[in-house]
What does this fold into?
Amino acid sequence: MTPFTTHRGLIATLDRANVDTDQIIPKQFLKLIGRTGFGEHLFQDWRYLPDGKPNPDFALNAERFKGASIVVTRNNFGCGSSREHAVWALQQYGFHVVIAPWVMRGATRVPAFADIFKTNASKNALLTVELAAAEVEEIFQMVGRTPRLAATVDLDKQRVVLHLDEELAFHFEMDPAVKERLTRGLDDIGITLKHEQAISAFEARHDPQLFATPS
Amino acid sequence: MAKTLFEKIWDRHVVATLPDGMALLYIDRHLVHEVTSPQAFEGLRLSGRTVRRPALTFATMDHNVPTDDRTIIRDPISKAQMEALQKNCAEFGITLYGLDSDRQGIVHIIGPELGLTLPGTTVVCGDSHTSTHGAFGVLAFGIGTSEVEHVLATQCLLQKRPQTCKVEFTGRPVPPVSAKDLILKLIGTIGTAGGTGYVFEYCGEAIRALSMEARMTICNMSIEAGARAGLIAPDETTFQYLADGKRPFAPQGRAFEKAVAFWKTLPSDADATFDRTIRINATDVAPQVTWGTNPGMVVDVTGRVPAPDEVAGYSRQDVEHALQYMGLQPGTRMTDITIDVVFIGSCTNARIEDLRIVANTLKGRKVHPKVRVLIVPGSQSVRQQAEAEGLDRTFREAGCEWRHAGCSMCLGMNPDQLQSGERCASTSNRNFEGRQGKGGRTHLVSPEMAAATAIAGHFVDIRSWKP
It folds into this structure.
């Protein structure tokens, strides 16, 4: 995996909550058996009109977001299907970072990203940054007010810095295990295979078939 | 120390705890289908790795398969994907239940049927509805393609331990309110991200009273509440399901008795603690119908389409988008919404009990002349059983299309799709925009609601409806 350390790029905003992976990459593109060719179909149904022309009402088609590599969106991004193709599509379109807010629902803190999406992103070095709702709202406001606003996302310092006249910085939390893998670009399978002895020892005492001999 | 069902399963599968706190978790069963696996097999080839335990890996084809004529796959890209699975299974020595098998079907339906899903084990699959298997007291969750490759290569996964949430359904639902209504009610209550980061354990009188198939319906939609897994403690209902003699991979004879003794140790200890508890009174639950574009946008069938500013947990804009896509006006009675298509199928509701319920409603009646009804069994075994019981005749006589097994119109990767603007009452699990076909409008309901809607042409309150 390519390591993720810092990234500087243009910010785009996508003002939708509960964006599911069916929207990110619709099913007809899941038939491909390779890992490429997904970027041009990112958000296909929102992005293009029935005649195939870009939909002028879709946020990411805006001229001012051309070349954006950081997308800021709303809560529960990536919910639904486990399709990793959603991550590949975001990356192949050009995104390196997705920023979304956690929110409170009653007494429960609802994470910014759906579980499976977040795991899939971490396996491909697409950085998912979780901020408070008020902070994300502030970024939305700033992007709305400032043409071609750029940001630097520093994984080591766990900081997002908006490059305004006066820099505006936000700290974000990050699981240390995920951070370590991302910054060093570690291969999970490689890590696991170093525990080969432990796996073999486990297998010697563990019966996954629960006494069953398949008939 | 007192442990929950989840903790008991988790603890007995931890191979090692890494210095960074991640657990290396052993996977007992790995289920594979054609859509999320080709890149994983390709990854193995590129890195010169192999499948560690091919005997613990089982594959089927479900997402792409045609459900009318199975001998012709018209879409060359679908065909290539299915052929890739065949080739990969042959190359790596994995058992495949392909189109030529009379046990082929939706991966989450055939796992339990074959006895691959056993209490106390871990099951994963590159598919979010893997949570279905939790109905047996299994830690089962969906994974992405990178993790599929990881399991193929190592039979393990690196996992962070999730939090636990007890979901208690008190009282009993009043028939015809079903498992589908209970789970939709939960999702409507906590939202589609309400369970993110948690593993659910469903319990309470209502859950105990459910059949295995109904329990699978509940666990199946855990992911729709954001929970990667949802478990139900095994009990006599579970043991009876596994003892029926038709499940080749379940323990038999003496081995079965040993297994039952182990399974009886699995339920959560009385004094075990959960990170969070949710209670829902099952007796109060009415038949549910979704009105929006995610499963949390749901109301009682007696309710109305909400106004943009009156839905808890959704912004005005969220609701406006959903209503615009769904072509609905606030204040419309749910029972006034007319339907073009009824889809009965999917890993949520395409088992034999679901089909019996549908047949019971359809028997001796005709579907509404303006409604097209597609009935797609979850597996070829379900199809054979339904035909042995004569259900297929009831379906055909009522005017329904009776198909072969597959995911079909749940996500429309095969030719079974909604046309733009068509409105569908569906027994599936997701009402996302375009899920059943670009521009298609999905309302999630139970099988009995779907069958009644097929006859009436609009939603009805099945508690008082007379055909």
About this structure: Chain B has a mean pLDDT of 97. Chain B touches chain A through 88 residues (CB under 8 Å). The longest strand of chain B covers residues 163-170. Chain B is about 30% helix and 15% strand.
